Amino acid sequence: MVSNDTTVKASGKTAEEVVVRLNAGVHRINTELASLRLPTNAAKTKVIIFVSLRSTKKSHHITPISMGGTIIEELSCIKHLGVLIDKNLQWDEQFKAIQRNATFGIAKFNRAKGA
Question: What domain of life is recorded for the organism (predicted)?
Fold first, then answer.
C-alpha cells in the first residue's frame, strides 16, 4: 500500500508563517503515515506557495519546507489533479497545455483522416 496525492494546505499573513505551518503539517502527516507503515518519498514531494499579486514582493521566505530532513522542492507551477496552477493563481500554463493537447489531437485526427 502507498499514499498518493496527499495535500497539505496552510494559510497565513506572511509567507514565513505559511512555511512554519506547512512544515508542521508535513511533519504530522509524515509521522502518521509512518505509523501506518505507508512510505513517503520526499524526492517526489513538491510544494507551491500561493501569493496574491499585491504581495509578491513580500512573499519571500527563508525557511525551507522539509520532510524527514529532506528539503522539499518549491515550484512556481504545479499539476494537481490534472490541472496546472501557478503560484499567482494565473491559468496561462493550463491554457498552454490545453492548446498543445488540442493541437496534437487535431493533427492526429487529420493524419488519420488522410490515411
Answer: Eukaryota
- Alpha helix ranges (H) inside 2-55: 15-35
Query: 58 or 72: whose pLDDT is higher?
Result: 72
In a shared domain, residues 95 and 55: no
Q: Indicate the number of domains in the chain.
A: 2
> In this predicted structure, what is the pLDDT of residue 87?
87
- What CA–CA distance (Å, rounded) separates 16 from 83? 26
Residue 39 and residue 78: Cα distance in Å, rounded? Answer: 22
Q: Among 84, 12, 94, which Cα is nearest to 51's?
A: 12
Domain assignment of residue 89, given as a range: 79-115
How does pLDDT run across 8-28, given as a tens digit for each residue? Answer: 889 888 888 888 999 999 999
With a CB cutoff of 8 Å and minimum separation 6, the contacts of 67 are: 26, 27, 30, 40, 42, 45
Q: What does the buried/exposed string (b/e) look like for 11-31 if buried means 16 or more CB atoms within 10 Å of the residue's CB?
A: eeeebeebbbebbeebeebbe
